[in-house]
Design brief:
Elements: H1 28-46, E1 59-64, H2 70-81, E2 85-90, H3 102-111, E3 116-121, H4 126-131, E4 137-143, H5 149-163, E5 170-174, H6 181-192, E6 196-200, H7 210-213, E7 216-218, H8 221-225, E8 230-233, H9 249-256, H10 260-263, E9 271-273, H11 286-289, H12 297-324
Parallel strand pairs: 1-2, 1-3, 3-4, 5-6, 5-8, 6-7, 8-9
The structure holds N-carbamoyl-L-aspartate (NCD).
Length: 325
C-alpha cells in the first residue's frame, strides 16, 4: 500500500533504524532527523488540518504493561493524527494478566500484522526482547529504569524550540536519578548533542553506573543549579524503590525540592521542566511548576505528540519499505 509522506516537498529520508529502543547508540544525525520532523509536526498540529493521511492503512498498537496516562494518550493521538488505526492494549484487560508469556503476546501481535508497536514494560530489557520476536517496528515507551527515548526526544525538542540549539547548554537533572529512565535517556541524548549534563541528588538516589555516564554529580541544589540553563525535576519513583531512600518527604522537599529560593542559583532565565506526573510539594513547589514564564511543563506534553508522530511516521515507512524489497 502506498503511504503518503507529510508533504511532497518534505518527504522524510529513510530512517536508518528499524526500532527505537533507546537513545544510547543513536548518532547526532539520527537524533536531528527525528527532531526536525517532530518540529514540522509541531507546527502542523498548531495549525488547521491537523488530521493527516500519512499512515492511512497502518496499524499502531500501544501495549502497556504499566499504567500510563500521558504517554499512552500521546501515542494514541499521534497515531490518529497521522490517520493510522490505533489499538490500545493494557495489561489489566489483556491475556497477559492470565499468564501469557511475552513471546506468546508477540506471536499474537504478529498474527495481527501491526506496523508499529509502542511498548511500556516494568522490566528493563523486556521491550528489546519483544522487538526480537515481532515482525513490526517497536518503540520503547519506557522499560523499567532503563530508557524512555520518546521522552528524551520531546524534552530536547522543547528545549531546542526555546533556546534554538542544545549545544553547550548546561542542564541539571534533579531528584531520583537512580530509578529514572527519563534521566538515562536524557543523559545520552543531551551529551550526544553537545549539551553539558549534571545530576543533583542525594547519594541514595544515584545509580551505581553513574561514572560511566560521564556527568557531573552534585549533592546540593545550590551548587548543582549554579549557572544552569535548564532545570529538569524528576519524580520520586516510589513504585520502583525497595526500602527507604529518603528520610521523609518534608526533608526531601527542603533539600531537593525546587522552589524559588533554590531556583535563584540557576541562570536568571533558566527554564523549568518535569516529565510528569508531578508530585507537587515533593520534588517541586506548586508556584514554580505553574510559573508561565519559566515552566515548560505543558509545552513538553504538546511536543510529546509531535515527537511520537515523527517516530511513528519514520518507523512505519521503514517497515513498509523493508517489506516491499
Ligand atoms: C515518566 C515515566 O513514566 O518514566 N513519565 C512519563 O513518561 N511521562 C516519569 C515518571 O513516571 O515519573
Amino acid at each position: 500500500m502506498a503511504i503518503s509522506p507529510i508533504s511532497p516537498e518534505s518527504a522524510p529520508p529513510p530512517y536508518p533504524h528499524r526500532h527505537l529502543l533507546g537513545i544510547e547508540g543513536l548518532s547526532p544525525d539520527d537524533i536531528s532527523q527525528l527532531l526536525d520532523l517532530s518540529e514540522e509536526y509541531a507546527e502542523q498540529s498548531r495549525g488547521r488540518g491537523r488530521k493527516l493521511s500519512t499512515l492511512s492503512g497502518c496499524t499502531c498498537i500501544n501495549l502497556f504493561f504499566e499504567n500510563s496516562t500521558r504517554t499512552r494518550t500521546s501515542f494514541e493521538l499521534a497515531g490518529k493524527r497521522l490517520g493510522a488505526d490505533v489499538i490500545n492494549i493494557s495489561v489489566g484487560s489483556s491475556s497477559i494478566k492470565k499468564g501469557e508469556t511475552l513471546i506468546d503476546t508477540a506471536m499474537t501481535l504478529n498474527a495481527m500484522h501491526a506496523d508499529v508497536l509502542a511498548v511500556r514494560h516494568p522490566d528493563a530489557g523486556a521491550v528489546k526482547l519483544l522487538s526480537e520476536k515481532v515482525n513490526c517496528a517497536v518503540i520503547n515507551a519506557g522499560d523499567g529504569s532503563h530508557e524512555h527515548p520518546t521522552q528524551a526526544l520531546l524534552d530536547a525538542l522543547t528545549i531546542r524550540r526555546r533556546r534554538g540549539h542544545l549545544r553547550d547548554l548546561q542542564v541539571a537533572l534533579c531528584g531520583d536519578i537512580a530509578h529514572s529512565r527519563v534521566a538515562r535517556s536524557n543523559i545520552y541524548l543531551l551529551q550526544t548533542m553537545g549539551a553539558r549534563v549534571r545530576v543533583v541528588a542525594p547519594p541514595t538516589l544515584l545509580p551505581p553506573e553513574l561514572e560511566r555516564l560521564g556527568v557531573e554529580v552534585f549533592h546540593d541544589m545550590r551548587r548543582g543549579l549554579a549557572d544552569c540553563d535548564i532545570v529538569m525535576m524528576l519524580r520520586l519513583q516510589r513504585e520502583r524503590m525497595q526500602g527507604t531512600f529518603v528520610p521523609s518527604i518534608r526533608e526531601y522537599f527542603r533539600f531537593f525540592g525546587l522552589d524559588y529560593e533554590k531556583l535563584q542559583f540557576a541562570k536568571p532565565d533558566a527554564l523549568i521542566m518535569h516529565p510528569g506526573p508531578m508530585n507537587r510539594g515533593v520534588e517541586i513547589d506548586s508556584q514554580v511548576a505553574d510559573d508561565i514564564d519559566r515552566s515548560l511543563i505543558h509545552e513538553q506534553v504538546e511536543m510529546g505528540v509531535a515527537v511520537r508522530m515523527a517516530c511513528l511516521d519514520l518507523l512505519a515507512h521503514g517497515v513498509r519499505e523493508a517489506g516491499a524489497l
